[in-house]
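Known limitations

Files may contain more than one protein. Parsers should not assume a single record per file. Below, a two-record file is shown to illustrate correct handling: read the sequence, read the token line, then continue until end of file.
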Amino acid sequence: MREFPGMKTVMAALMGARTYATMPVPVLAVFADPHVAEPWVGRSPDPAVRKTAHAYLETLNARTETQASALANGVPNARVVRLRGTHDIFLSNETDVLREMRAFLAALK
């Protein structure tokens, strides 16, 4: 597994550790929140698959919101964006993600 340079700082913020008072770099975090089911789940003929997937998404959404809130509250200069979409948010919401990236980058200038 490859770790990006800020992984330890991000994980500290997400886990509630107060190792750093601030992140000294601009932060853009895009979360799929709420997650929506990939198309194959809704088309499954098996009601058990749909029920299990629904329960999984409810749990995933709760955990994602916890992470997004921890980052937003723990890193005041972070821009935390929540978009309704699939786990691969860039694929399900390409236009929205690009818009948010452009706005974030424009604010850095």
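...continuing to the second record:
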Amino acid sequence: MKPDMKEKQAHRGRTARPASPGSWLARGFVASARGLALSAEMIAQCLFTVVVLCVATLAMLGVGLYLLPGTLLGARRLASLSRRRASAWEGTGIPAPYRPRPREGSRWQWLITDPATWRDLLWLLLNPTFGWLLTLMPGALITWGLFGVVMPAVWKPILDAHSNNWYAMIHVINPATAWLCVPLGAAFMLAGVAVAPLMLRSHGRLAHFMLAPAQRAELAERVEYLTATRSDLADTRAAEIRRIERDLHDGAQARLVAMGMTLSAAERALKNSPEAAMALLVEARHNSVKALADLRDLIRGIYPPVLADRGLSEAVRALAMDSPLNVEVVNALHGRADAAVESAAYFAVSELLANVIKHAHAQHVSIDLRYQHGSLRIDVTDDGQGGANPSQGTGLHGIERRLAAFDGILAVGSPLGGPTMVSMELPCVLSSPKTSSC
């Protein structure tokens, strides 16, 4: 089960492409059906607009002020539903433009001073007024065309009942004129199917124009996001430095100190007891070997040599060979990314494999590496018990923070019972191993 990344992409202001059937005919019918569903949704928006006007009138008269915050929140929910529809059906990702609620101040003040609230209300007023022209037109053309196709079977009862039968530009008074409606009706149906995707996308652009954050708000949100990721990156780097210092202090440094003390003892014992001095020198040599091994392990934890020498795909293969699980690596990368991006991706995969070993009770893991739409994409799938959740402290939150420092995203699909699929995307540019840039 593939995880869906559309929600995160919309939050970041990217455009999500909705899944659609293959043939243009199927796409047209699906788009027209969605347009009719949006038209039905506009009826609810129109009724809610009447409710808003009534509550606003009562508020101006001094009564019903307590109803206004709840009414405005209801308007937000309807506008948010339109944003989700635009992302899922119309291929237009619309991020939420609302300001966060301050710790101080009333809910009324927070709602009434947010410009997005007024834009939501304007959308609820204008969408049922003009939006239905875009969403209802394809369905109307198809329905009218279907009426023309069946005209040979229905023209006589209609003419007997109304003594006059017009269909488009044809005055139907006999079988010959009724059969002329068939090709005209088919043309209407084809026109409705053809314009339905275009009308749906146009409605999506209208929703984006009305409901997306203003440029200033979008820039402020972007600055806030970059500030948060920069803070996370600084915390991660500080924690990494503390880990390196701790490993050096407890590992290689302690062994080097012990080796120095052993060599001093061997120096003192050299004249009086050469055999004891020789034993101390052997011990010092063992300590030097262990200190060197500790330093090599520390270097692998900072930036593995196989990653620097042979690239991400071979480094991931090395992880797969060291894993106790059956790990399959599929590599579709043709080039190298920047060293920092490769390092982030490598340690993310390493952490994911560690999570699978500890928590998933899986037997087989598949790792798919590829470059797609300007991003390095890595899919890690296991056949374990599922139920992975980034909010439950399974290490996924740390991976998400690591990727966010490079404007990357993490998506998790893990139903109970499995399988689990974790997808990572890191924007970058692939190049030759000698000249990589992101």
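Parsers that stop after the first record will miss the second one. For reference, the second record is described as follows. Residues 1-21, 434-438 have pLDDT under 50 and may be disordered.
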